Structure to design on (316 residues):
């Protein structure tokens, strides 16, 4: 990767992926872009462009202007918000991807598109969910993610485009909050634990989900694009896992640091139904075998770091 464009850079992942990649590849070689104009100063430390994922001409102009060889497509409507507007979810998640795939035929750039645990459904085996298994998602977000996996495979097989991707768990981070996801509670809980010493959880006790801390998420996104293509049998939807927990477990871990912390429940039926259709825990051995994927953060290590970083941030 020499000249990289990150689309949707102002979101939860992009706002940390961009600075991480600028450290590796150089400030001026990582171009951040978003439809929003009110982006953080950090993104503007290197080139920044306003780009709508549905505006093919603008995307083409930016790719040509910076001689881009790799695009990170982080534009997406997440699962819970996608259920409120399924048509828009399809338009953004699949329409935006199709624009990039078509441009990649002409401009020959490599393309990273994240899939998600959302690509699985109720009929998928929930424990040690295999790399290759039943995928009949029950949410529109999931429908768009499976479609994305298939489209990226298709463009690789038919047109030789270097498409790659991973199936991300819920991502936990402390820079930019996620918005409209099912796994967002696992971020909110840390903010509330510090600010109010209590939290109301919108998922039921016993709801296990795969989760991952941001440093692992970023490393997975970079390592898959740097992996030796000759070793990749799968390309676009590698299961990558780090930890699996249910709400009582994250609360118990926080209590070790903030003993007065308490949690109660007010269940969101839409998020609960989505969460129950997703894996409890994915098997990511194929990612390890094909490109050496290994997580570094588990629940205790992440909790300690999240509480330290957020305590400082929320003082300001
Ligand atoms: C969501 O909850 O929608 C996302 C995801 C797991 O893809 N965080």
């Amino acid at each position: 990767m020499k000249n990289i464009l990150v689309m949707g850079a102002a979101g939860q992942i992009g706002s940390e992926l961009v600075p991480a990649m600028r450290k590796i590849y150089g400030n001026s070689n990582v171009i951040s872009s978003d439809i929003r104009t009110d982006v953080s100063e950090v993104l503007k430390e290197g080139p920044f462009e306003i780009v709508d994922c549905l505006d093919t001409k603008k995307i083409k102009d930016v790719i040509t202007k910076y001689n881009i060889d790799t695009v990170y497509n982080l534009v997406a409507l997440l699962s819970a918000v996608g259920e409120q507007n399924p048509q828009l979810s399809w338009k953004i998640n699949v329409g935006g991807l199709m624009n990039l795939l078509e441009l990649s035929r002409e401009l020959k750039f490599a393309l990273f598109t994240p899939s998600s645990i959302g690509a699985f459904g109720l009929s998928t085996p929930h424990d040690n969910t295999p790399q290759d298994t039943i995928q009949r998602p029950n949410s529109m977000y999931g429908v768009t993610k499976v479609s994305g996996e298939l489209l990226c495979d298709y463009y690789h097989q038919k047109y030789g485009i270097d498409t790659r991707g991973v199936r991300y768990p819920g991502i936990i981070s402390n820079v930019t909050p996620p918005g409209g996801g099912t796994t967002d509670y696992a971020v909110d809980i840390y903010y509330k634990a510090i600010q109010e010493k209590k939290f109301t959880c919108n998922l039921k006790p016993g709801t296990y989900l795969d989760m991952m801390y941001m440093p692992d998420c970023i490393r997975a996104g970079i390592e898959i694009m740097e992996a030796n293509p000759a070793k990749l049998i799968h390309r676009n939807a590698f299961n990558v896992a780090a930890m699996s927990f249910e709400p009582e477990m994250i609360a118990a871990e926080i209590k070790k640091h903030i003993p007065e912390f308490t949690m109660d429940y007010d269940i969101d039926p839409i998020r609960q139904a989505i969460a129950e259709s997703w894996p409890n825990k994915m098997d990511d051995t194929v990612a390890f075998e094909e490109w050496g994927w290994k997580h570094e953060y588990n629940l205790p290590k992440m909790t300690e770091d999240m509480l330290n970083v957020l305590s400082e941030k929320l003082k300001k």
